[in-house]
Amino acid sequence: MSCPLEEDGPRRCLNERCSQLLPTGAGAFCSPTCKRRRAWRLARRRREGHGKAYVVPDFVTALRRERRAGYCLFCPRPLSTTRAVTCGRKECIRAYNTTWRAEERRRLRGEQSLYARESEDEELAGEFRADVGELLRRTSLLIAEWCARVDELVADLGIRPRRDAMSRRTGDGLHLLHGAGDDGEHHQPARAPPEEA
After folding, report:
1. What is the pLDDT of residues 171-183, one digit of tens each?
2. Would you say 172 and 147 are in contact if contact means Cβ atoms under 8 Å apart?
3. Distance CA 119, CA 6 (A)
């Protein structure tokens, strides 16, 4: 049974710092020197504790940008406690392995990853971040103006604002106008205790 990474066509040395093309049917490295250098570099990174001893695949980085933190890259379930990118289900593990093998075959052939970000994507991402920042700034100004108007309305009505621990700054006026508390229930005014005979 042949390795799933073996394919006809030129491949590159598995050493990240070597760009030597490998002949068909050759091993993973172009020479024993490259193999020793890569093993030494990975061992040094493990000893010094400078993060992971392997390069995070581009597809993992790309999918993490599209998913919420702490969730599987291939389904909406939370991450497994024993795995870093999947929930642990067989389908998601199979999807990860299939994607990794496809990307690794492309890398060994010297092709660019399907998930690599291009310069145009970086420019669009920068413009999007700038637009979102401006939108958040305008939204914060509108919220501040709305809060000021609510405070003025409450003052004109002569109602004392509530300042309990559960009320929010932007919700005081609405709770007073609608006569509802934080739980949505209408509160009746407190009655005086009955006088003793």
Report:
1. 444 444 444 444 4
2. no
3. 31
Q: What 8-state DSSP symbol labels residue 186?
A: B
Strand partners, 113: none
Residue 78 in 3-state DSSP? Answer: strand
pTM of this structure = 0.38
Distance CA 139, CA 52 (A): 40
Q: Report the DSSP beta bridge partners of residue 186.
A: 180
Residue 55 to residue 176: CA distance in whole angstroms:
56
Per the CB < 8 A criterion, the answer to whether 84 and 56 are in contact is: no
pLDDT of residue 113: 78
How far is residue 24's CA from residue 82's CA, in Å, rounded to a whole number?
37
Number of H helices, E strands in the chain: 5, 2
The pLDDT > 90 percentage for the chain reads 9
CA–CA separation, 66 and 21 (whole Å)? 34
Residues found in the chain: 197
Instruction: List Cβ neighbours of 162 (8 Å cut-off, separation of 6 or more).
Output: 172, 175, 176
